[in-house]
Design brief:
162 residues, mainly alpha
Length: 162
């Protein structure tokens, strides 16, 4: 029994909390980056559509005749329609990214809560199983010749004494 390592194999509540918080931060950063990428793509698509529409209009103006003037008007209407479509697509992407961020946040918060709850139950279970104090457990460990008993936690003392 004296050869067991000093550290417990289970991570502490603090370490679990840190891990959960790091995971939350990673997922939030990932979602924010995805949102920024989607916004940039939508903005680039809108600019491209606007440039193309301007080119179409200029081309139509060069060959101005009565029929071509009507075509210019139609091109302007089409350009306005394309810009509206691109704007709607950008809004849709933004809303979708917002939903993804919210879902990720909720998922990670649920995991953090579950981890905290299970850790609290384990600690409560340990306290309920033994009515012995740490001092009593250390006295028993001293009697049994457990090395390093004064540095052990209550859970470690319980494992080594019983």
């Amino acid at each position: 029994m004296a050869n067991k390592s000093k550290k417990s194999a289970k991570p502490s509540k603090r370490e679990l909390r840190k891990r959960a918080n790091r995971e939350l931060e990673r997922q939030l950063v990932k979602a924010k980056n995805a949102l920024a990428d989607e916004k940039a793509r939508a903005k680039a698509a809108a600019k491209k559509a606007k440039r193309q529409a301007k080119k179409d209009i200029q081309k139509a103006k060069k060959n101005a005749s009565e029929a071509q003037k009507n075509a210019v008007k139609a091109a302007k209407r089409a350009a306005r329609g394309k810009a509206t479509e691109v704007g709607e697509k950008a809004d849709s992407v933004k809303a979708d990214a917002g939903r993804k961020v919210s879902a990720t946040r909720a998922s990670v918060e649920h995991k953090v809560t579950a981890t905290r709850t299970s850790a609290a139950r384990r600690v409560a279970g340990t306290k309920a199983e033994t009515g012995e104090s740490v001092a009593t457990l250390r006295a028993k460990a001293r009697e049994q010749g457990v090395a390093g008993y004064s540095r052990l936690t209550k859970a470690q003392l319980l494992d080594r004494v019983k």
